[in-house]
Amino acid sequence: MNAEKEKIIVDAMASFIGHTVKILPDDVGAKLRELSEKETDPAAMAVYETMFRNLRLAEELDRPLCQDTGVVQFWVRCGSGFPMMNEMERLLTEAVLKATRETPLRPNCVETFSDVNTGNNVGKGVPVIWWDIVPDRDDCEIYTYYAGGGCSLPGKAEVFMPGAGYKAIIPFVLDRVTEYGLNACPPLLIGVGVGNSVETAAMNSKKALMRSVDSVSDDPKAAEMEKLLEEGVNAIGLGPQGFGGSSSVLGVNIVNTPRHPATLGVAVNFGCWAHRRGAIVFDRDLGFRSTTHSGFKG
Ligand code: SF4
To answer: What is the pLDDT of residues 142-178, one digit of tens each?
Structure first.
């Protein structure tokens, strides 16, 4: 009986990975269309056209929409009453092995120091799995993300003295955009994390990338800063793929948690135009649905 349940999860997750490396989430696709319709710069318009052709061909030819299928990362928000919690790490790893063979995914797991590519996207600590245990729930929400070498893997974090003030976040983010934003294939989704240390800020910045591109922080001050940063990054004028243009961002999302009186941790992570994040929810009977990809049927 358990073998049957395990097969449902492995098959569903391998299929979801296959779908989400080929098809953008609904919100990202809609935002790209919105930005392209507003664009007036001829070079930028041509880049958007190429992006939409790329998306169409990925779907028609059943291939990943970018050659860099990234490091597979999961953020698992698991209800404490979900019956398969115990098995999830093993099953998610099996799903990555299956998706690597069947989709296929490019092998992107290189053992550090020996520099050997494991060839199957699995190694010690890979796929990356972050857990949140959610009390009083019996479902399991899983965010999938394919962190590419140009976009969200080269994030940056720093801990400021509190005297620097929250205004220090603005130049920190803008400097990162001018430093390596081009490598991240704009328009960018900018995930900013604020917290008490490097690691809490970094985790918050990753969670920020899982919010939808048009979402607004429920903290009014953070929401104000999201708007300011969006205006500031657009003013830099990178445009799609760095060819110049009126928009350089899909969105700016800030996730903030309290800081220590003596520290202000800040981190930034970029998502690229091919922002392949997905979310799937399993109920306790292992029925499932995606909240990001309306076309995913399993
Ligand atoms: S930044 Fe994104 S679109 Fe560009 S190569 Fe990396 S994964 Fe692909």
So the answer is: 999 999 999 999 999 999 999 999 999 999 999 999 9
Nearest alpha carbon, ligand 1 atom 7: 148
The CATH number of 2-22+64-148+276-290 is 3.30.1330
Q: Which of helix, strand or coil describes residue 279?
A: strand
Q: What is the pTM of this model?
A: 0.96
Kindly give the distance from the C-alpha atom of residue 149 to the centroid of ligand 1, in angstroms, as a whole number: 7
Beta-ladder partners of 60: none
Q: How far is the CA of 160 from the centre of ligand 1 (A)?
A: 30
Q: Which amino acid, one-letter code, is at 201? A: A
Q: What residues contact residue 127 under an 8 Å CB cut-off, 6+ apart? A: 71, 72, 73, 74, 92, 93, 96, 121
Dist. CA 273 → ligand 1 center (Å): 8
Please state, in angstroms and rounded to a whole number, the distance separating the CA atoms of residues 21 and 104. Answer: 10
Confidence of residue 1 (pLDDT cuts 50, 70, 90): low
- Average pLDDT rounded to a whole number, residues 132-136: 98
Tell which atom from ligand 1 comes closest to the C-alpha of 149.
6
Ligand 1 pocket test, candidate residues 63, 185, 243, most atoms within 8 A of CB:
185
Q: Does residue 42 surpass a pLDDT of 90?
A: yes
Domain ranges of the chain: 2-22+64-148+276-290, 156-271
Q: Is 44 touching ligand 1 by the criterion CB < 6 Å?
A: no
